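Are you able to produce any protein sequence you like plus the matching backbone structure tokens because I've never seen that pairing?
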Amino acid sequence: MRDGARGRAFLDGPSRLQGIDLARALAVLGMFAAHLIALPQPELREPLTWIGLAGGRSSILFATLAGASLALITGGPAPITGPARATARLRILVRAALLWILGIALILTGVPVYVILPAYALLFALALPLLGLRARTLWVLTGVGALILPWLQPVWNALPLWQGTSGGDLALLLGWHYPFTLWIVFLIAGLAIGRSPLRALRTQVWLLIGGMLAVGLSVTGGALVPVDEDDTYFGLVWTAVEHSGGLLEVIGSGGAAVATIGACLLLCRTPISVALLPLRAVGAMPLTAYVGQLVAWAAAAALLLGDVGDLAGFRALAPFWPFVTVTVVVCTTWALLVGRGPLEQLVAACARRLVRAPRIG
């Protein structure tokens, strides 16, 4: 098979959900925007401010898609069972360990962002007991978690162990900017999505409608019960501010993630999917794109500024569009010529090597 044909088979083959790849690309490039641009507050009547929607929401979409990916590699609508599930759990645990190590390495570069990979790793580990659950149960757990966990998060945030230098280091090691005690809700929502029949039109429509209803509920709740952005307990819980962990953020931004996935799946049912191939290529290798951005940032900032940690100085260089352009071109070229992303290949190969598949017979 010619290289180009092999790459197209990778991106357009029957085993891939093109809409999931597209949603992953939006999540990755949204995090680029959150990192590289001082995002404005989004205003409905000002289209130029809509890029501000990436703040907080792109990382939640990323976490939700992580859950969907775990579900898809463990059977999709029909969870694998027996020795195959045990093997999958161990391989996911290996992936989690590798992601945590990679995340710590990225933190050590000094790039001034909250690296999501340590939190990702913990969420992968926490998902292991849930892999055998069906979609309906997972959706119930998502709803219960979304309604209860935001009320507990201010308590966890106020614990003395986060204080001082050691507390700050612990927060980095655990990815506490994306606290697993709350973000498990988004991962479970993703598991529920991946356990649903995603190729069915009805499922895709319901994801879009259900997600939009959740967004509307969040907006309505904020309008009916407005609170000042203060440090009172209720103010911390009843907020939609990005990265707040508030109830309205969990419902609204979580709903936006679900709706985005539904919209991407629907869009990729149309011929437009062909034109979106470069974006889908980015979404087919999200780990490579995410890590590549931070490594390139560290190298460029050290070379051009002499200070990797100078966030304002690096943003002043207007790096967003160059980073996006290079990422799309490199990922598209790699996907068409090789297929799976290099870091995705490496992590999968390590998991297979360390955890052998069970023998049959």
Q: What stands out?
A: The longest helix spans residues 82-108. The chain has a mean pLDDT of 91. The two ends are 33 Å apart (CA to CA).
